[in-house]
Design a protein that fits this description.
CATH class: Alpha Beta
CATH topology: Spore Coat Polysaccharide Biosynthesis Protein SpsA, Chain A
Order of helices and strands: EEEHEHEHEHEEEEEHHEH
Oligomer: single chain
Number of domains: 1
């Protein structure tokens, strides 16, 4: 299949409550430059591919607020909304149900080689180069994810407050999103029962035994906005 004709989805997970930001407003709605965070995130994928199918996962109680934000900012990037779940795992699963239904309705046999990316809503500085690299690699390897090497020194504690030892930082990477997979693979992987150790989509796929996703070079700018300092850094990078 020609890469330009391939069906691509991205599920943007935005279920954060903003508790570590020190306020009541969820961090995905907080202003970053001229617009709220989540508008930047969705726009980043639209710039990469105007035909990509964007699925936004939001808590039900935030839908009206989101609709009002889109109206206030004249935001017209096409997207569909599904309800968030109890955990990130369940939120992604809800998004995948929409992907599966859409492909089935179109009669796409074997999902037609469609690719599905899953991205944190509070990573608004993701760039088209990184997005393209992950989707292209996933097309060849069934699954791929971006990561960057750890640059700080690391120490491992045997237990809280106990003696620590230095570890070789060259063996450790910081994993980012989007994490991209073939549609049929990620849908099957999410039919597993939830486990607490499922911290991202790669861990779900690996546990399923369906494939071993490969790593591609991530971006230092692709930070996850979690604390007030993250916003200061993001504004500087913008």
């Amino acid at each position: 299949m020609n890469a330009d004709e391939q069906t691509r989805f991205v599920i943007v997970v935005a279920g954060g409550k903003g508790l570590r930001m020190g306020g009541d407003m969820p961090k995905q709605f907080m202003p970053l430059g001229d617009r709220p965070v989540l508008l930047h995130t969705l726009d980043a994928f639209y710039r990469y591919d105007s035909e990509i199918r964007i699925i936004l996962v939001l808590p039900d109680g935030q839908r009206v607020y989101w609709h009002n934000l889109c109206t206030d900012y004249g935001f017209t990037v096409p997207h569909r909304i599904v309800s968030g779940g109890e955990t990130r795992f369940h939120s992604v699963k809800n998004g995948l149900a929409l992907v599966e239904n859409a492909l089935a309705a179109e009669g796409t046999a074997g999902f037609g080689g469609a690719l599905v990316g899953i991205h944190d809503g509070v990573r608004p500085l993701i760039d088209s180069k990184t997005i393209a690299a992950v989707y292209e690699r996933a097309d060849f390897e069934n699954g791929a994810y971006p990561a960057i090497p750890v640059t700080d020194s690391l120490r491992k504690f045997s237990a809280p407050g106990k003696k620590s030892v230095a570890v070789d930082r060259s063996k450790y990477y910081l994993v980012q999103t989007p994490q991209v997979f073939r549609a049929e693979l990620i849908i099957k992987a999410y039919r597993q029962e939830y486990r607490p150790e499922f911290t991202d989509d790669v861990s779900v796929v690996e546990a399923s035994g369906l494939c071993n996703p490969v790593m591609v070079e991530g971006s230092r700018k692709n930070i996850k906005l979690t604390t007030p300092l993250d916003f200061v850094i993001a504004k500087a990078m913008m």
